[in-house]
Write a structure and sequence with these properties.
Layout lengths: L3 E6 L4 H5 L1 H9 L3 E6 L12 H17 L4 E4 L11 H14 L3 E4 L7 H15 L18 E5 L16 E4 L4 H9 L3 H9 L5 H14 L6 E6 L10 H6 L3 E3 L1
Parallel strand pairs: 1-2, 1-4, 2-3, 4-5
Antiparallel strand pairs: 5-7, 6-7, 6-8
């Protein structure tokens, strides 16, 4: 098994909020880490042009990834216009074939923003398509299909406010300092969230949700996940083998 992980989300800071602690644990265990975003965060501003904020946010994402020795990739689609279509599927499949990850993390299929839900579906199909030869993709196919894990939705709830329960938890108590520093790299988002979401608790909100997940398993901080177990995907939970007692299954 190639010891490579790809965390692919919609926007810069999504991975830092939802799974950076787990990525840090995997890095310490010798795994090569890649963080990718579908878009550069070009709508996440109340003051900058698209070009300005895209450059700022990609630089922030790269700096955050470097804190755990990870590689950063941006697929250069647009915020709000992340579409489940031929062009997007081919681009994500190409990235997967370049990186050749054994484990993939992505957004929850149920979340507060359609960009996140579309990304979840696109990554699902791209993982399944890693070994399909007749794709419109130049990179060579590879097998087997990567292990696919969905992170928690924002605030752990769906669009109706109903809780989305995690099926497994990673204890990230020791990783919280680096997770916090990674999220702090995204300084441009504090002002944006204050303006758009009326939220001036960027890091505190992340820590509060991580603490809530931790409380569910008797730890200080945790991140929650669900594994994709549909036909054609690996059925064993490889994270259990890799993480040992850092992983708690409910």
């Amino acid at each position: 098994m190639e010891k490579k992980v790809l965390a692919i989300f919609s926007h810069p800071d999504d991975a830092e909020i939802m799974c950076a602690g787990t990525l840090s644990v995997l890095k310490k265990k010798g795994w090569e880490i890649h963080i990718a975003t579908m878009a550069p965060g070009d709508k996440g501003t109340a003051v900058n042009t698209r070009e300005e904020i895209s450059a700022i946010r990609k630089a922030e994402a790269k700096k955050a990834a470097e804190m755990i020795g990870a590689h950063y990739h941006c697929l250069e689609f647009e915020d709000v216009y992340i579409l489940y279509d031929r062009i997007t599927l081919n681009a994500v499949t190409t990235l997967l074939r370049i990186v050749k990850p054994s484990i993939v993390f992505t957004a929850s299929p149920q979340d507060y923003m359609v960009d996140h839900e579309q990304t979840s579906k696109i990554v699902w199909t791209a993982c399944f398509a890693c070994g399909i030869r007749n794709m419109e993709v130049c990179e060579e196919p590879f097998e087997p299909v990567p292990y696919l894990y969905y992170s928690d939705p924002m605030e752990g709830k769906d669009i109706f406010g109903d809780p989305v329960k995690a099926k497994m938890y990673v204890d990230i108590t020791e990783e919280m300092p680096v997770k916090e520093k990674m999220l702090a790299c995204h300084a441009s988002q504090r002002n944006w969230l204050l303006e758009h979401h009326k939220m001036d608790e960027y890091i505190l909100a992340m820590k509060r949700f991580s603490a809530n997940r931790g409380q569910e398993i008797g730890k200080t901080y945790a991140e929650g996940f669900r594994q994709h177990l549909g036909h054609g995907f690996n059925q064993e939970n490889v994270l259990q083998e890799i993480l040992g007692d850092k992983l708690v299954i409910k």
